[in-house]
Each structure stands twice: as C-alpha cells, then as structure tokens.
C-alpha cells in the first residue's frame, strides 16, 4: 500500500424497516453501554428481518430472537430482535436460514411478529451491532427512517 492509498469504505444496510436510533436509546445496558459492540438499533415497523450484509450465518439463537453473521470481510454482526424477547422461547419468530448458509445483503433471515411481541409488553427495538470492533475503524452510524435491505445504517473501514 502506498502512502496515499485509501482503505475502501464498506457498508451495512438496515436489517429491518423502521426508525434507526442510537444504541444509547436501547433500554438494556448491555446494548446501550456498547458492552458487546457498537452499531445502531431499529424500531421496526414491519415483520421482515433481512441480512444487513453479505456473509455466513454463524449462529441462530434457539429462541430465534437473534442471529449472528460473519460478513465476507470478517466482521461479526449480531442482529438482536427486541429486548427480553428471549422470554418468548421462540414464539413469534420464524427463521428462514440455517447455520453455515451464505447470505447476501437483503436476503430474508427471519420474521418477527410485531403485534404478538407488543401484546406481551416487550420492546420491539432491535440492535444491530458489530461485536469485533477491534477490526473496524472510521465507523459512521446513520439514524432516521430505513428500508430493510436498502438503507445504509453503518459504514466503516477494516483495520
């Protein structure tokens, strides 16, 4: 690499349609204090959950409320659906992928039944975080309205 070469800026798109907010707005200290990593959260307005990047599914919670993806460039991304939704023991979640499956940004991963989750008095806010932040520099986070699979919510460069 030459003195003036630039690292390519990569993007992560919204996993859900809705309103993108800062992680500090998540009513769970593990996310709000960025203990697991940095990123954004989405208050979803649709049931569909799409892949935020090209990568491989590395983990699916038994309760289907969270999925881990390793992006093609090596980032570990956690998509966590709602807060305390683990209590539902899978009720209200449908999974369309399996561990080891390669996905493209915008591929359907899961569905979450927003009405059911609300009826159980659980918060819909859904963090999407990068858990291996040591591999990231120049992280930029975007807030506002997002369309799943289309709107850029994070951009970064690999360290």
Brief overview:
With about 160 residues, the protein is mainly beta. About 5% of the residues lie in helices and about 40% in strands.
Describe the protein's architecture and organization:
The protein has 159 residues and is mainly beta. It is built from two helices and 14 strands, in the order ββαββββββββαββββ. The protein has helices at residues 29-32, 114-119; strands spanning 10-13, 18-22, 38-44, 48-50, 55-60, 66-71, 76-80, 93-95, 102-103, 108-112, 126-130, 136-141, 144-146, 152-158. The strands form three sheets. It has an eight-stranded antiparallel β-sheet with strand order 9-5-6-7-11-3-2-13, with no helix packed on it. Strands 1-14-12 form a three-stranded antiparallel β-sheet, with no helix packed on it. Strands 4-10-8 form a three-stranded antiparallel β-sheet, with no helix packed on it. A hairpin with a 4-residue loop joins strand 6 (66-71) and strand 7. The longest helix has 6 residues, at 114-119. The radius of gyration is 15 Å and the shape is globular. It starts with 9 loop residues before the first strand and ends with a strand.
